[in-house]
Amino acid sequence: MTALDFSDLFAPNLPPPTARWGGFPTHNFIGGHNAPETIVARQLAECVTKVLEREAQSLAFYNAGHGPQGYLPLREWLSEKLDRQAGIKCSTDEILMTSGSSPALDLVNKVLLQPGDTVIVEQSNYGGMLSRFKRLKVDMVSIDLDGDGMRMDHLERALADLKTKGKRLKYIYTIPTVQNPTATILPLDRRQEMLRLADAYDTAIFEDECYSDLIWSGERPPAIYALDESGRTIFTSTFSKSIAPAIRVGYLVAKWPFLSQAVACKTDAGSGMIEQMMLAEFCPTHFDAHLAKLIARLQHKRDVLVEALNENFGTAVEFTPPPGGIFLWVRFSEKVDTTQLTQAAAKAGIAINPGVDWSVQHPEGNRHIRLCYASASPEELRAGVAALADVCHQTFGIPERSANRTRDA
């Protein structure tokens, strides 16, 4: 028999095929991984055992009998947490559990977007969302950022321009709290101004708070959703960064008119229930203490990465030490094409995110890389940065080996 060539049957506009998994590279600075040493295995095992001994028979029912929005005790805890930490007041009926935040992004896009629609995004932004917009053939209007996040004067100009052109904006996509990849935190006055502009131009806001639990100071402005009196904001977050990414549990928060449509579009017959049950058992008594330890560990790793960059690159790179999160946005001089650097680094066993994958405008992206530091040990971070500096010197002559390679953090 002749082997079937499935490529002749593939639907159009598919993403590039995935390469076979070959394991992690020697120096891995990509991916939203967590710190392995902070996984609380004993407590999680105790929680899953306890909840299964109590409720295992409920697994005979889809969603354990709690309906399509997910496990009710976890939604009850989330309602309390969101109020306490982000100022969001929502009922359990305004929370939809998802299999991580990625399906939440897809649900929002499925409900709201069609090819040719327009969205507003931050100029530097989550690569996974930018690739989604491209696959959906959605027009992106990018807004510049500064040290405080999205610039509201630029946002206002973009909104006015779209109105003049007669284009209906579907939503503003923003990561306001530990922005990905810049790690900026949008201050309260800008959040209020974004809401004012969204109201004036009658558009929605999609607020992605994937990293908002991971702030060194523990202090953050209220969520945009919390400030919104018009019901135009959709909120998403996840347990991937606060507990573990392999525990695929995220959630959407929205008013019922939107959320009811999102529930109708959810086609997976319910997100994993054992994970939700385990988290509902774990979080009320353990979450805050676990988060404090995780934050301390991540801040130490950030400090190690900053020190290693200073020692190995000196003034050849620029960056602002982030106030939280798991990544650092690094800017090179015009002499370094970071796409080329990424390719050269990969051959040396070093994985980095090139800025073009995290930027709407490629000329600026070509000067940046994103370095994730959560999963590597301090020793691995130091070795990886030293190896990257060697590759960069061999490829571009930067950093100059004779130069003073230290500076103030």
What does this structure look like?
The protein has 409 residues and is an alpha/beta fold. The protein has two domains: 23-40 and 289-396, Aspartate Aminotransferase, domain 1; 56-286, Aspartate Aminotransferase, domain 2 (3-Layer(aba) Sandwich), CATH 3.40.640. The chain has helices at 41-55, 72-86, 101-112, 127-135, 152-164, 188-200, 224-227, 256-265, 273-312, 338-347, 362-365, 378-396, and strands spanning 27-28, 95-98, 118-122, 139-143, 145-146, 149-150, 169-174, 204-208, 233-238, 250-253, 317-318, 327-332, 350-351, 353-354, 368-372. The strands form four sheets. It has a seven-stranded mixed β-sheet with strand order 2-10-9-8-7-3-4, with helices on both faces. Helix 1 packs antiparallel against helix 9, helix 3 crosses helix 8 (256-265) and helix 9 (273-312) packs across helix 12 (378-396). The longest helix is centred in the C-terminal third of the chain and has 40 residues, at 273-312.
